[in-house]
Amino acid sequence: MKPKVTMIAWNQNDNYVVTAVNNHLLKVWNSSTGQLLHDLVGHADEVFVLETHPFDCRIMLSAGHDGNIFIWDITKGTKTKHYFNMIEGQGHGAVFDCKFSPDGQHFACTDSHGHLLIFGFGCSRPYEKASSAFYRISIPDQMFFHTDYRPLIRDSNNYVLDEQTQQAPHLMPPPFLVDVDGNPHPTKYQRLVPGRENCADEHLIPQLGYVATSDGEVVEQVIGQQTVDQDEPGLEPSILDGMIRQLQLEQDQRTGADQESAPSGPQNGEGTPRRG
């Protein structure tokens, strides 16, 4: 198997670079000389989460699809703590993301079963009310932005653009929530995305299209907004929608003129006035 890098992260002071490889190893490199310092062994599946400690340059967190969460001392090449995300009756849950708190005393993880895991020091009582409210929302197991893995390109000025829409990523409309296969979630979940809280239902239905992948496979994918409110700031109105509105307006005007010029007829409900 040819080794491939799946994730990369610098430590807090940028002296070290940690790479996750698809052979389940983590490699620690000297960022100045490029020298390999340590091989970190422990994961049994691919790692897609590398998170540095907010102020301790020695500490790096890793997590992966094997359900393992490791805290490493990358200066010594040793593991300082290990957690395994075992779910009763369902096996382990793959860990999709992790983040440290600003004070470095806690970190939170999300897994493939829709769980939010909070690790840290002290009592868990402050989180009990929050966690009970969280589970009452009943969110889907898998939640991703449809733009998470869309390819980027650079223009002639070396600015980054979204490959499909040719727009700068920060100028694009708020993304849609999808599952791991790219299927959009119902509209009630789309309102969880900042910027879509007060949108009408018809503006929360994404437009699906067929996109060719790098392997030549054609897959269905969320490609953008289905309908756009022209009064909504920051979004360009659809040209096709504008033409349809204009045609409808002209038809309504013609219909109104015809009704005004038509002679009055019986109004008993059995017939309608007709133009001579």
What does this structure look like?
It is a single chain. 14% of the residues lie in helices and 34% in strands. The chain has 276 residues and is α+β, with helices and mostly antiparallel strands. The chain folds into two domains: 5-122, YVTN repeat-like/Quinoprotein amine dehydrogenase (Methylamine Dehydrogenase, Chain H), CATH 2.130.10; 123-225, no CATH class. The strands form seven sheets. A four-stranded antiparallel sheet has the order 1-2-3-4, with no helix packed on it. It has a four-stranded antiparallel sheet with strand order 5-6-7-8, with no helix packed on it. A three-stranded antiparallel sheet has the order 11-12-13, with no helix packed on it. A hairpin with a 5-residue loop joins strand 18 and strand 19 (218-225). It is elongated, with a radius of gyration of 27 Å. The termini are far apart. Keywords: Repeat, WD repeat. Residues 248-276 are annotated as: Disordered. This is BRWD1 protein. Residues 258-270 have a biased composition (Polar residues).
